[in-house]
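Private note to self, pasted from the team thread so I don't lose it. Backbone tokens:
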């Protein structure tokens, strides 16, 4: 992390660049490690409406919430990839992202990551069904406590279009996997090719929840399961769709990678 003085200098340079660049010329913006403040992010959202890919790190606490939906409404019709890394000093979640989603009509990839040492509480997903996430093909959630409201996400997805699903060190992942398995069963459609589930400690119910999901998916090509402990996945739960299994020597105990 940059010192306070360097951080202020960097913010000044970035602010100058955003002001100097012709409006709406920027197509991609990526800042995974440098934390944007609300003023910088608000300026970015209002002046760079042709972005197709956006990655940013945001320091969120009670005084620095994400800019509201008016900043993205009508501005991000071209956005296809959104990656957000949340850091902060409390365990409360942000509500801003849920307000953004109904206005990101062309979003294909959503990656939201909290903090490993102090997981954010992932709430506020009660948004109208059939509006948001219907074109999302890749969903990655990492280092979150997934509250019950995130279970609503299954009704926002077109489950048959989802190609990649990653749940990394998320408390409550088992509940979400159960909801998604039910959604796959009801839809009878699956395009899921890549699946990752990583637990903080032992597998607990994560293994059985993953196996239940596999019952309703066809065409899986890449599976990563990781936890601390010797318990392994039964390959028969993949219905024979994965032909080659590699137990990589450098992977931690409990990790299996499979490819076809």
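Design output:
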């Amino acid at each position: 992390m940059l010192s306070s003085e360097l951080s202020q200098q960097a913010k000044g340079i970035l602010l100058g660049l955003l002001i100097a660049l012709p409006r709406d010329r920027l197509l991609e913006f990526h800042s995974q490690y440098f934390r944007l403040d609300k003023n910088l992010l608000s300026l970015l959202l209002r002046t760079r409406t042709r972005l197709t890919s956006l990655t940013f790190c945001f320091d969120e606490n009670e005084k620095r919430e994400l800019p509201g939906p008016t900043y993205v409404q009508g501005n991000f019709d071209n956005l296809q990839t959104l990656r957000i890394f949340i850091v902060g000093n409390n365990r409360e979640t942000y509500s801003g992202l849920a307000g953004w989603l109904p206005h990101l009509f062309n979003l294909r990839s959503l990656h939201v990551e909290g903090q490993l040492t102090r997981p954010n509480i992932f709430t506020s997903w009660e948004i109208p069904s059939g509006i948001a996430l219907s074109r999302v093909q890749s969903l990655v959630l990492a280092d979150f406590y997934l509250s019950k409201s995130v279970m609503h996400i299954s009704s926002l997805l077109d489950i048959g279009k989802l190609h990649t699903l990653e749940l990394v060190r998320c408390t409550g992942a088992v509940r979400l996997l159960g909801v998604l398995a039910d959604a796959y069963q009801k839809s009878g459609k699956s395009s899921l090719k890549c699946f990752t589930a990583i637990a903080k400690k032992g597998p607990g119910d994560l293994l059985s929840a993953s196996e239940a999901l596999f019952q309703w998916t066809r065409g899986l090509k890449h599976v990563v399961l990781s936890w601390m402990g010797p318990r392994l996945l039964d390959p028969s739960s993949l219905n024979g769709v994965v032909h080659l299994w590699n137990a990589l020597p450098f992977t931690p105990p409990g990790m299996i990678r499979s490819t076809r």
